[in-house]
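Annex B. Sample input.
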Amino acid sequence: MKIPYLLLVCVLSLVTSAYAEPAPEPFGKILFEDDFSGTELKEEWGSWKSETVVKDGVMVGITPTTADHPSVNQIKLPPLSDMEVAVKFKYAGSPRFNIMIRDLDYKGSHAGHICHVGVSPDSISLYDGKFGQFLKEIRDKRKAGIPLTEEEKNHQETKRVTNKLSLDKEAWHTLLVRIEGDVMKAWIDGELACQIQSEGIAHKTKSNMNITTMDREMHYDDFSIRVPE
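Annex B, continued. Sample output.
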């Protein structure tokens, strides 16, 4: 049976819309924002193992050549649960950056890691770090060179989701990360790129956000942290 063209278009539109989720309206309350219009990082920014600078209206993330850890630029937060982080980014040599959320008082995971998002030009990954790769028992076993059991390996697989991307490394892109309850979603350039639902994400006292830049360099602009009103 030949399907009329207009009916076919409608059917395809419905199928597409079922899987598409445009970026939401931002949360109403701004906790912190920075357009990097000054000559140096605002005092709210903390840095660790970093040579990050402000130049030409952007934050240039740089890991020192002698560092044994990616560059960290961080913002302290009041203890909170739901939140969103938005930032524009452009690759300038670095292969990857992360938006990492931590609770510095939480001892059940390495360095208080709760959840994070990693973005490279060809993939995006969302992690429940609290019960995934940063879970203290898992981290300790790996550090000691003790193999994980099959059950532990299978559990780890449930704590991350990775999707493919194809980003133009010469262009600016916009990342929006929203955490609501036990769900974390990430949009790139207004399109849903990845999402995960996991119990660790619902941690209620997140107190630290950091951007980690792998190697050198990554450019960032128009950064903000928002929470519901």
